From TrEMBL:
Keywords: Coiled coil, Exocytosis, Transport. One of its GO terms (cellular component) is exocyst. It comes from the Eukaryota. Pfam families: Sec10_HB, Sec10_N. Belongs to the SEC10 family. Residues 214-801, 803-931 form the Exocyst complex component Sec10-like alpha-helical bundle domain. This is Recyclin-1. PANTHER family: EXOCYST COMPLEX COMPONENT 5, SEC10.
Length: 937
């Protein structure tokens, strides 16, 4: 906005005459960063000074636009004036100002609209001109493109013509050159067309040492041309061409003679340069010699003259480094170290030669191929022939000399190290030579018969090991000569026991053999066949070793059986003889027990050995057989077949073990059982409710002797053995007890014996045996109940355990969480309290009923069932209470006249027994009430 004009100047025509503040607006005021607030302030600033004051206060407090502070007196003065003046005195001036401003703005808009119209018109004109110019330019560009296309076509045509002319010129030049060379060659050929051996008059070219390369090239071309011509016409030639043919034959002969002489001369020069290490001269000679049979003679000559192939000392040093001093037996480890050193030396030598060959020969790869082939076929083969002397399979070398195993280990070491050498030589460079195939051919004669040697070696090792073990056993047997026969036999048997360590050694041999199979076999089928053959050897060895060991252990059982039969006596013998026989029988029993343990140890170690074989098969063998169809299945079948002989020996031995145990049981029963055990005399003595001494001895013997069986046997084998033993024991006891008669107190003692046997046999986990002894316990009741009660004795026997079993099943289910949650003293206190409460509940429960003898038997069976379950509580006080309950249940079983002796010696339970007697169903009929006072007084 422009500044207001002076008073003397002429106001604009659109300004109002009523205002004294002329206003002029300019277009420049609306350019740039336009602000309406600023425009408005400039318009009203002269009329409303308070507006500027408020702006100044809002922007900078008391500061004025020029930066100076407003005086406080002025501000107060101005405020007092505002209060005194009317509310809006400048309204009229402002309205006039705004109207004039609107008119100015309208005028400005008209000016701007006019300018915009003129600009649009100018732009339209210029756009038309521009479009016209672009159209003319496009036409010109199209003309240029057409001209360029014609020019390009012309250039292409000229280029093709020039190329054809160039080809013709090049062909003509080549023909001219060929014709010139042919003329030259014919001239040289005529020189060689003289009589044989007359080479003195040849061109200087063929005698100039500085032009040897050119002479060699021309000689080769002449010879090829002459030989081709002779071959085309054939020999003999027709008469009409005899002269020409004779001439060419003479030329060929002369050329061959010259080429031979030249080649020999170059080789001599090459050798001289080689000795002086003049690589440049060697390279020149090699390049010239490459024109003679592609330089084969030079390559072979260079390789053949290397010191490693012609120096005898080098060969001897190789042998000494690998095999050691002459006469000393080399070990595989020493040979491996020697081969590593030698092969490293050879590789370094070849690497140095490779540098020379690369610098000298135009085709170094072919020379390297010849060099590496010569190294393998001459130097390595000579060493392997001395190292690997194939032994005879008919007359095996002794183990002291290393046996077949030494040969196989040497073969493996040599093969592995030679393959490493081949890989190193391949890395150095050997052209197109098949180094791997050549290396395999060095060992082909050994690998063809390798499986037979491996199996023969394993058999030899097994034979030596068995002889070693047998010698140790014989030595121990000789040292125990002063020991008694039975004791000595057991000592020898113990020394000849099956050893897991020995089986592990068999496996270690086999693992080593399998590693060699992996080394020598490259095809999966070959590897599978070799592995199967080697593993079959292991199966045969382990099967034979286990079977022999079990047979030796059986021999101890047989010897013990012979000792028992030897001391069986008749009925009429003296006391002295009987005492000696008893002592011998004790010795035979000790021998039988020792043999039993030895056989069980043998069985246990046999099982461990078989487990080792199975684990070895799973970890190492099966994966090698899987790639071949049927190989894995066949190996599994062979493994089962191989172990069948050992299983048969184990089965026979276990049968003998049972016979041994049963023989000792019968001896103990015959020696310890007395007739008075089951028929106590009526001498007023208190009856004995303990198990008989025979029963105690038998159970102690079985516990002692079967400890090894529990450890040695597993799974179904253990279950079958213990079941058979339990059935045999049942049969023996049944036959034994049939020799005696029983009174009621004897019946109770018999029942105690049966319970003792049954408790022990429960550890067998053989339900059929448990059932038989339960029935024995029931049958023993026939000696206890009154005669009139025998008819009802076995009524309902099959279900005697049903009610008690339901209670036990419930308790087992409910207490399962308690067994898991509780620990230590808390668990013990809880279970003891629970057992005592159960005893009290059952006692109160049974007092609601009356019992006949058969009911008493069912009650006794229930008490036994509860007692068996509560033993898992490990609460001795609870176990004692249920044992006393079992004793008290006898009051329902025995005859009334036997009650007087039932509780003698057990005063602590008389009170409870008195209550139980009152529950008998014949309590009133037998007038037992009158007898109670005298019975428990």
């Amino acid at each position: 906005m422009r500044e207001p004009r002076d008073e003397g100047s002429k106001p604009p025509k659109n300004s109002s005459s009523a205002t004294s503040f002329p206003l002029i607006l300019d277009i420049e005021d609306f350019k740039g960063d336009f602000s309406f607030d600023e425009l408005f302030g400039n318009l009203v600033g002269e009329l409303l000074p308070a507006y500027k004051l408020e702006d100044a206060e809002g922007d900078g407090g008391d500061s004025q636009p020029n930066g100076h502070l407003r005086a406080p007196s002025d501000a107060s003065k101005y405020s007092s004036q505002v209060v005194a003046s009317p509310l809006f005195p400048e309204v009229e001036k402002l309205l006039s100002l705004f109207k004039d401003s609107c008119k100015e703005l309208l005028e400005l808009r008209k000016q701007i609209d006019g300018r915009l119209y003129n600009l649009k018109k100018d732009v339209s004109v210029q756009d038309s001109k521009h479009r016209k110019t672009l159209s003319e330019l496009e036409k010109g560009v199209d003309g240029l493109f057409d001209s360029f296309a014609r020019l390009d076509s012309r250039i292409s045509s000229v280029g093709q013509t020039a190329a054809k002319i160039g080809d013709h010129l090049q062909s003509a030049d080549a023909q001219r050159e060929t014709a010139s060379q042919t003329i030259e060659l014919i001239k040289y050929l005529m020189e060689f067309n003289s009589s044989p051996g007359d080479l003195m008059e040849l061109s200087p070219l063929f005698s100039d040492d500085s032009r040897v390369a050119e002479a060699a090239s021309i000689a080769q071309k002449l010879r090829s041309f002459a030989e081709e011509d002779i071959g085309r016409h054939g020999i003999p030639v027709p008469m009409g061409n005899a002269t020409a043919s004779r001439g060419l034959e003479v030329a060929v002969a002369n050329l061959q003679e010259y080429c031979n002489e030249l080649e020999n001369r170059l080789l001599s020069r090459f050798d001289a340069a080689s000795q002086k290490r003049e690589l440049t001269t060697m390279a020149e000679c090699a390049k010239i010699l490459s024109q003679f049979n592609r330089g084969t003679s030079a390559m072979q000559h260079y390789v053949a003259t290397r010191p490693m192939f012609i120096d005898v000392e080098v060969m001897n040093a190789d042998t000494k480094l690998v095999l050691g001093e002459q006469g000393a037996q080399a070990s595989p480890n020493n040979v491996a170290r020697g081969l590593s050193s030698l092969y490293k030396e050879i590789t370094d030598t070849v690497r140095k030669e490779a540098a020379t060959i690369t610098a000298v020969f135009p085709t170094p790869s072919e020379v390297m191929s010849i060099l590496v082939q010569r190294v393998l076929e001459q130097r390595i083969t000579a060493l392997l022939d001395k190292l690997l002397e194939k032994p005879s399979l008919v007359n095996l070398p002794s183990v002291e000399e290393g046996g077949l195993l030494l040969y196989l280990r040497m073969l493996a070491v040599a093969y592995e190290k030679t393959r490493e050498l081949a890989r190193d030589l391949q890395a150095v460079g050997c052209g197109d030579l098949d180094v791997e195939g050549l290396t395999e051919s060095l060992f082909s004669s050994h690998k063809d018969e390798y499986p037979e040697y491996e199996q023969a070696s394993l058999r030899q090792l097994y034979k030596v090991k068995v002889e070693e073990l047998r010698a140790e056993s014989m030595q121990i047997s000789d040292s125990s000569g002063s020991i008694g026969r039975a004791k000595g036999a057991s000592v020898v048997a113990s020394q000849q026991q099956i050893s897991v360590t020995v089986v592990t050694e068999f496996v270690r041999w086999n693992e080593e053999a399998i590693s060699r199979c992996n080394l020598f076999a490259s095809q999966p089928a070959t590897l599978a066949n070799n592995v199967k053959a080697v593993f079959t050897c292991l199966l045969d060895q382990v099967s034979q070793y286990i079977a022999d060991g079990l047979e030796r252990a059986r021999d101890g059982l047989t010897e013990a059986a012979n000792l028992r039969e030897r001391f069986v006596l008749g009925t009429s013998v003296t006391r002295r003889v009987a005492a000696a026989a008893a002592s011998a029988a004790e010795a035979a029993a000790a021998a039988g027990e020792s043999s039993f343990r030895s056989f069980m140890i043998a069985v246990q170690r046999s099982g461990s050995s078989v487990a080792i074989i199975q684990q070895y098969f799973s970890n190492s063998i099966s994966r090698l057989l899987l790639p071949v169809d049927g190989a894995h299945t066949a190996a599994c079948e062979e493994m089962a077949t191989a172990m069948s002989s050992a299983e048969a020996a184990a089965y026979k031995g276990l049968q003998q073990c049972i016979e041994t145990v049963m023989a000792e049981v019968e001896r103990l029963l015959s020696a310890e059982q007395k007739a008075t055990d089951y028929r106590s005399p009526d001498d007023g003595m208190a009856p004995d409710h303990r198990a008989t001494s025979a029963c105690t001895r038998v159970v102690a013997y079985l516990s002692r002797v079967l400890e090894s069986a529990f450890t040695a046997l597993e799974g179904l084998n253990k279950q079958a053995f213990l079941t058979e033993l339990g059935n045999r024991l049942h049969k023996v006891l049944l036959n034994h007890w049939q020799k005696y008669t029983f009174n009621p107190s004897g019946g109770l003692r018999l029942k105690r014996d049966i319970t003792e046997y049954g408790d022990f046999l429960r550890s067998f986990n053989a339900p059929s045996v448990d059932e038989k002894f339960e029935l024995l316990g029931i049958m023993a009741n026939v000696f206890i109940v009154a005669p009139e009660s025998l008819s009802t004795l076995f009524e309902g026997t099959p279900s005697i355990r049903k009610d008690a079993q339901r209670v036990v099943a419930y308790l087992s289910r409910v207490l399962e969480s308690a067994f898991t949650a509780l620990e230590g003293l808390n668990k013990q206190a809880f279970l003891t309290e629970l057992g005592n409460r159960l005893h009290k509940v059952l006692l109160n429960h049974w007092q609601k009923y009356t019992f006949n003898p058969s009911g008493g038997l069912r009650l006794k069976r229930d008490i036994t069932e509860y007692g068996d379950f509560l033993r898992s509580f490990n609460a001795p006080s609870v176990d004692e209470k249920f044992e006393l309950l079992g004793i008290m249940a006898n009051v329902f079983i025995v005859a009334p006249e036997s009650l007087s002796t039932l509780f003698e010696g057990t005063p602590s339970i008389r009170k409870d027994a008195q209550r139980f007697i009152q529950l008998r169903d014949d309590y009133k009929a037998a007038k037992l009430a009158s007898k109670l006072s005298s019975l428990f007084s």
